[in-house]
């Protein structure tokens, strides 16, 4: 390029890097800029990053969110927010492979990323992988006992709002199909359920809380117990449990929502919006978690005293919740299993 512009290499460098105060004549500057256009020169961004110690990359290392449709929104949210602030997101989906995780982190550190988001497809406690804290880092949809900021869903308020959807329609005998799996979702959603009952002056009945497999089979298997308990509404740990519940009550001759109102959790669009009737649920804010992770990393949002930023789980009312029919409290349709 210096030869094409008929100037020295140092002059080319000064023009390309827009060096303030450099003594370069207008004619020489014009010739260098013309040579840049004619030769299609593009600066080596990686080399500049290595020299400056900064880059326009933000890393995201995840276990399986790229292959989990609803959790993949974490990537989408992080990508959009990173781009909004002039950064590009580097994504490594490791499928839980520790060697792949280690190599991904090493690659990101070599590229001097601005920071690293470490994310899981479901909310849980994690052990920090080796190398993660060598850069600024934020945990997304997970947390650790280490002193690392985390962005997580507000499970308790989500459980509260799910139960409140039923209470507001007049239901007072409300079952909760929780998961058998120990997790923040298990504890937080139960706490929210209990808080909503207390606020409505409804006594908590532990018999109305049934732990089930967190899948369609779990919801289906719980139907006989729910009918025996005489509930008028059910809050399900997730949408898959609710889908199984739909199957079971349909076989029992119980109509949703006329005989039994149902609320799920997650807002998995492939399930919730396409059940009949469409399932009222609470959304896991995956897109917003990704956004917030980038914002915390860049210092635009702050975590609380506990090192966490909680993101709201918004209610999504649909057709599976309705008020009680006059004079009817959890009475199944004729012929329903008792």
Write structural notes for this entry.
There is one protein chain. With 338 residues, the chain is α/β, with parallel strands linked by helices. The chain folds into three domains: 2-43, no CATH class; 51-148 and 288-313, Rossmann fold (3-Layer(aba) Sandwich); 155-280, 3-Layer(aba) Sandwich (Rossmann fold). The chain has 13 helices and twelve strands. The strands form three sheets. A six-stranded parallel sheet has the order 2-1-3-4-5-11, sandwiched between helices. A four-stranded parallel sheet has the order 7-6-8-9. The longest helix is centred in the middle third of the chain and has 16 residues, at 184-199. It is elongated. The N and C termini lie far apart (86 Å). Mean pLDDT is 88; it is low at 326-338. GO terms for molecular function: DNA-binding transcription factor activity; transcription cis-regulatory region binding. Residues 1-52 form the HTH lacI-type domain. It comes from Nocardioides ginsengisegetis.
């Amino acid at each position: 390029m210096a030869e094409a512009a008929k100037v020295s290499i140092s002059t080319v460098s000064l023009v390309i890097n827009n060096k303030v105060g450099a003594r370069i004549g207008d004619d020489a500057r014009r010739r260098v800029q013309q040579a840049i256009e004619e030769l299609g020169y593009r600066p080596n961004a990686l080399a500049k990053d290595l020299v400056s110690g900064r880059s326009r990359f933000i890393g995201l290392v995840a276990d399986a969110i790229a292959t989990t449709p609803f959790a993949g929104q974490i990537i989408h949210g992080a990508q959009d927010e990173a781009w909004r602030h002039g950064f590009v997101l580097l994504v490594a989906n490791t499928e839980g492979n520790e060697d792949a995780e280690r190599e991904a982190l090493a690659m990101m550190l070599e590229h001097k990323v601005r920071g690293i988001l470490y994310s899981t497809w479901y909310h849980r406690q994690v052990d920090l992988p080796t190398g993660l804290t060598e850069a600024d880092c934020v945990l997304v949809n997970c947390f650790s006992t280490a002193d690392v900021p985390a962005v997580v869903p507000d499970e308790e308020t989500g459980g509260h709002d799910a139960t409140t959807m039923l209470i507001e329609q007049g239901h007072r005998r409300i079952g909760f199909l929780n998961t058998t799996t120990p997790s923040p979702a298990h504890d937080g959603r139960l706490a929210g359920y209990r808080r909503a009952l207390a606020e409505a002056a409804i006594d908590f009945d532990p018999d109305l809380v049934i732990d089930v497999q967190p899948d369609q089979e779990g919801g289906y298997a719980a139907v006989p117990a729910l009918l025996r308990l005489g509930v008028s509404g059910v809050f399900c740990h997730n949408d898959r449990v609710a889908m199984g519940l739909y199957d079971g009550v349909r076989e029992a001759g119980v109509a949703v929502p006329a005989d039994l109102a149902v609320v799920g959790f997650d807002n998995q669009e492939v399930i919730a919006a396409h059940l009949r009737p469409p399932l009222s649920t609470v959304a896991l804010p995956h897109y917003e978690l990704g956004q917030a992770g980038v914002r915390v990393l860049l210092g635009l949002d702050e975590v609380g005293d506990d090192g966490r930023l909680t993101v709201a789980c918004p209610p999504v009312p649909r057709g599976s919740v309705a008020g009680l029919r006059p004079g009817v409290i959890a009475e199944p349709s004729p012929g329903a299993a008792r």
